[in-house]
Amino acid sequence: MTMTNELLRYFRAKEKERASETAAATQCPFCSVQCTLQLVEERIVERRRYKAVPTDNPTSNGRLCLKGMNAHQHALHPERLLFPLAKVDGRFVRVSWEEALSLIVERIISIQKEDGVDAFAVYGGGSLTNEEAYLLGKFARVALKTRHIDYNGRFCMSAAAAAMNDAFGLDRGLTNPLSDIPLAQTIILAGTNVAECQPTLMPYFYEAKKNGAFIIVVDPRETKTAALADLHLPLKPGTDTALAVGIGKVLLDEGYIDEAFVCERTVGFTEWKQHIEAVKMDEIARVTDVPAEKIRLAARKYGEAADAIVLTARGLEQQADGYAAVRHWMNVVLATGKIGRPGSGFGSITGQGNGQGGREHGQKADQLPGYRSIEHPEHRRYIANIWGISPDELPRKGVSAYEMMQKIGAGEITGLLVMGSNPVVSSPNAAFVAKALQKLKFLVVADMFLSETAELADLVLPVSSYLEDEGTVTNVEGRVCFRPAARKRPGEVKHDWEILCAIAHKLGKGRYFSFTSAEEIFNELRLASRGGKADYYGVTYERLRRERVYWPCPDAHHPGTPRLFTERFAHPDGKARFAVLPFRPEKEETDEWYPLYLTTGRVLAHYLSGTQTRRSPALSARQPEAVVEIHPRTAKRYGIGPGMLVRIETRRGAAVVRSRYNDQIREDTIFVPFHWSGLQQINNVTSDELDPHCRMPAFKRCAARVRPVVDLGRN
Ligand SMILES: Nc1nc2c(c(=O)[nH]1)N[C@H]1C(S)=C(S)[C@@H](COP(=O)(O)OP(=O)(O)OC[C@H]3O[C@@H](n4cnc5c(=O)[nH]c(N)nc54)[C@H](O)[C@@H]3O)O[C@H]1N2
Ligand SMILES: Nc1nc2c(c(=O)[nH]1)N[C@H]1C(S)=C(S)[C@@H](COP(=O)(O)OP(=O)(O)OC[C@H]3O[C@@H](n4cnc5c(=O)[nH]c(N)nc54)[C@H](O)[C@@H]3O)O[C@H]1N2
Ligand code: SF4
Ligand SMILES: [Mo]
C-alpha cells in the first residue's frame, strides 16, 4: 500500500515536470468581425488540451462567439491534409510536392496550348489573406495570363459592392466605425441576422437600445436579431426593393427630405422623386405583404431621427435584384442626408473573415489591386509598372464566378485552380456545378481538407490553416488586421502564397514571384494599392502589430479613415448618385406546383460550406444536421410533423432535411441553412438566376414544394 502511494506520488511529480502550458495569439478564421484570441495549449505528458481565451481589440472588445471558441478543433483535426494527393484510377495517392508541381505545370501548359490561355481559370475566396488574394490575382494575370479569375465573394458581396461603387464611388462595407452604432437613434437592419452571423457585434446594438434607439428589422423570419427589434417587418422574400421604395415614398410625402444635403451633395434626386411620386402605397403593401401602416411607422422613425443607420446583408442582396434593393436603401439614406456624420451612415455587413480585403486587390474578374479597373488604361499602366510587365501583357476582364462554371460546363474553360472555396456546396444550382467540374481536363484544389470540391479534383494541395498562416485581413469595419502564426505547419503543408510562387517558378515566371514572406507580399500590395481607392500604402506590418488601421490610409503618418464621406463622396465631382431601378417582376414566382418561397442562410454553429465547422465536435454537436424551418400551420397542411424528414423540391431538384417548427416565419416561406452536403445540400435546388448588374445569384428566393419522406406522425 505504502509502495503504491509512493509510486503515485513519484509519477505525479514526474507528470508535473512534464506538464506545460503555452499560449499563442491568433484571430478567429470565420466571420468578418475577426475577433482575437489566445490559443492555450495544456500539455500533460502525452495529452494535449486546448482552450480559446478571448483577447481585447477595438472591434470585438474581448468577446468571442461559439465558433471562435472552437475554431481550433478543425485546424487540429486528424483529417487535415498533410501532403499532396493525386488521383490515379479514381483514387487519391500521396505524391511529393515535386511531382505535384510538375503535374500542374505540365497540365497548365498543355491546356493553354490546346484550348487557349483563357482556358485555364482561377477561383479564389474571401478566407484568403490580403497577401494571398493579391498574389492570386497577380498569379492569374502574370503567371497564367488568363482573363478568367473570380472568387466566392461574388456570391457574397457583389450586389453591395456594385451599389456602393455606383452610388458613393467607393466600396467599403461600413461607411462608419462600429462605435457609431450606439449614437444612432434609429437603426434599420435589413436582411441581416447579426445575432447568429456576427454575434460579437450584438453589444453595439444593446448599447444603442440602452441609449433609446428604435430598431427595425426587415426579415421574413423573426430571427434572434429581430428579438431586439422595436418593429419587425416580415416581408415576402425578394420584395426588399419595393419596401425601400415604399419607405422613400413616405419620407418624400411627409417632408423628411434634407434639401440642402440633396442639393449640395447628390445627383439624380429629381428623377428619383418623379419615380417615387408615381408609387402607390397600397401596391407596395400588396407586393411586400407588409401593412402600409407598418411601413409608414418605419419611415417616420427613420425620418425623425437626428442620426440613423441602415445596415443590409445577404437577405436582400442575394436576390435577382439585390443591386436594386441596395440602391433603393441608399436613395433613402441620401434623400434624408443621413450619412457622413457620427451616428449616421450606411453599411453592408461583410461576411467572410476577409470578405472586405478579398474584394479589393484583384481576385475579381474585372479588377486590379487597390480597386483599380482592369479595363482602365491608366490603371493598367500603373499595375503593369509595379509588376514589371507591359500593359499589353495584362489580360482583359473575365466573367463572374457562376459564369465561369457555365463556361466550364460548355467546355470553354478546361483547367481550374480552386483556392479557398468549396463551390460544389456553395454555388447556386450546385448539382450543375458538380457535373461541370467533372468535365474539366484538370482540376486542382488547394484546401485544408478533402472538401466536396476537392473530392472531384485531379490534384489536391494541402494548405496551412489560420493557426499556421501569418497575414493580414480587412474586417467588417474596413480595418486592416494582422494575424500572427500561432503554430508550426503540420506535415508537408504549404501556405497558399508559397504554392502560387512555386507554380510560377516552374512556369518560368519566378522573377515576378520571388517572395519569401507574407510581409514582402504585403509591401508590394501597399505599392500596388497606392493612389487607388483602397489605398493601403500607409499600413505597415510594424503598425499593424500595434493597431487595426482603417483604409484608405495613404501614408505612414495618416491616421486611417474610420468615417467615410464626411465632406464629399468618392465620385470625381464629390457627389453621390440616386438611382431609379424597377422591382424585377420576372423573379422566380410560386405557383400551384411550387407554392412556397424557399430562402436560405446560416445558423450560429456552422460556417459556409461546413468543411471546417462540420469537423468541429463541439460545433457539430450543437447542430449535427440541416433543418427546414417551417411554420407549424404550413407543416400541418402537408402532413409534416416536427422532426420529420422533409423532401424539398424546386424546378431544379430535391433535398431532404428534417423539419423544425418555427411559428416566427412567414407561412408562405421556408428557411434552410446551406452548410451541409449530400442529400441535405440545399444548393442542389436553389436558383441560378443572376442579378444583371452584379451577377449575384438569387440564393434568397425560389419557388419550392415540400412533403414528408416518411410519415412518422401516424401510427
Ligand atoms: N454562424 C455563421 N456566421 C456567419 C457565416 C456563417 O456561415 N455562419 N457566414 C459569414 C458570411 S460569409 C456572410 S456573407 C454573413 C451573412 O450574414 P447574413 O446575411 O446576416 O446571413 P443569412 O443567414 O445569409 O441571411 C440573413 C437573413 O436574411 C433573411 N432573409 C431571407 N430572405 C430574405 C429577403 O428576401 N429579404 C430580407 N430582408 N431578408 C431575407 C434570412 O431569414 C436571414 O435571417 O455571415 C457571416 N457570418
Ligand atoms: N444557398 C446559399 N448558398 C450560399 C449562400 C447563402 O446564403 N445561401 N451564401 C454565399 C456566401 S455569402 C458565401 S461567402 C459563399 C461561401 O462559400 P465557399 O466559398 O464554399 O466558402 P467556404 O465554405 O468558406 O469554403 C472554403 C473552402 O476553403 C477552405 N479554406 C478555408 N480557409 C482556407 C485558406 O486559407 N486557404 C485555402 N486554400 N483554403 C481554405 C475550407 O476548408 C473550405 O473547403 O457561399 C455562398 N453560398
Ligand atoms: S465567428 Fe465571427 S464573431 Fe464569432 S468569434 Fe469568429 S470572428 Fe468573432
Ligand atoms: Mo459571404
Describe what is shown at a glance:
With 715 residues, the protein is an alpha/beta fold. The protein has 3 domains: 85-155 and 354-534, 3-Layer(aba) Sandwich (Rossmann fold); 174-348, Dimethylsulfoxide Reductase, domain 2; 596-708, Beta Barrel (Barwin-like endoglucanases).
Terminal CA distance reads 61 Å
Please mark out the parts with pLDDT under 50 across 5 or more consecutive residues, or reply none. Answer: none
Helix/strand/pairing category: alpha/beta
Q: Give every kind of bound small molecule, once each.
A: ligand MGD, iron/sulfur cluster, molybdenum atom
Output the CATH class name of the largest domain. Alpha Beta
What do we call the CATH topology of the largest domain? Rossmann fold
Give the rounded overall mean pLDDT.
Answer: 96
Tell me what portion of residues adopts beta-strand conformation.
15-25%
Question: Helicity, in percent?
Answer: 25-40%
Strand order of the largest sheet: 5-4-18-17-16-6-7
Radius of gyration: 26 Å
Could you state the oligomeric state of the chains shown?
single chain
Q: What kind of sheet is the major sheet? A: 7 strands, mixed
GO molecular function, one term: 4 iron, 4 sulfur cluster binding
Protein name: Assimilatory nitrate reductase catalytic subunit
Enzyme class: oxidoreductase
Keywords: 4Fe-4S, Iron, Iron-sulfur, Metal-binding, Oxidoreductase
